[in-house]
Amino acid sequence: MKKLAIALGLALLMTVPSGASSIGVGYAYWDSKDAGEDEGIGIRVAFDINESVDLEFRASFFDAFGQIANNALTRLEVTPVDLGFSYHFNKDGKAQPYLGAGGTFLLINALFDGGQVPVSGGPEVDDEFGFYLVAGVDVAVTELFGVFGEALFRQAELNVTGNGFEFTDFPSDLSGPAATVGLMLHW
């Protein structure tokens, strides 16, 4: 949660002086291939590039991914940070459908053995890069306020290292569908 609070704070600070056109916050869901599903909170900041294209920054926080692997893993905390572009089909309309894609950097914290951080020489999970695809719609409710909904597909795999450990059952593929719905301010 601390990482998301920092990301949200930075996003809010960037919006006013940087020329951001909208900021949104909402409910996020992700169903990964190997680590199951989780719910969290997500933010999105958009910057107009031209009449149809936005540069978008997204971040979400998921804290309950995981399963038992090698009798050790209890959960994964995953914060995907996305940067990419979206194309809006009806930028001046009340409903603005869009498609987009970009890169994802996953900040990952793996908690082993009852939620305790692994000791020195134990298994480690590296932060990873991947990509995402998105389709969504922004709907203006008033001139400044709106709602949004989007479906995403994220691709990302984990790299687990350790001192003599075997991780054949470790949830290594986080690829899968995701969704975010929320409220937004646009100007």
Written account of the structure:
The chain is mainly beta and 187 residues long. The chain has one domain (2-186): Porin (Beta Barrel). It is built from one helix and ten strands, in the order αββββββββββ. The chain has one helix spanning 2-18; strands at 20-32, 36-48, 53-65, 73-88, 95-112, 124-125, 128-140, 145-155, 160-161, 176-186. Strands 1-2-3-4-5-7-8-10 form an eight-stranded antiparallel barrel. It is elongated. The two termini are 28 Å apart. The mean pLDDT is 80.
List keywords for this structure.
single chain; mainly beta; 8-stranded antiparallel β-barrel; two-stranded antiparallel ribbon; 1 helix
- The CATH architecture category equals Beta Barrel
What does the main sheet amount to?
A: 8 strands, antiparallel, barrel
Uncertain regions spanning at least 5 consecutive residues: none
Structural class: mainly beta
In order across it, which strands form the biggest sheet?
Answer: 1-2-3-4-5-7-8-10
| Large-scale geometry | elongated
What is the highest CATH level, the class?
Mainly Beta
Portion of residues within helices = under 10%
- What is the count of helical runs? 1
* Count of beta strands: 10
Give the integer mean of the pLDDT values. Answer: 80
Strand content: over 45%
User: For the CA atoms, what is the radius of gyration?
Assistant: 18 Å
**Tally of discrete structural domains:** 1
Query: Termini, distance in Å?
Result: 28 Å
CATH topology: Porin
**Helix-strand pattern:** HEEEEEEEEEE
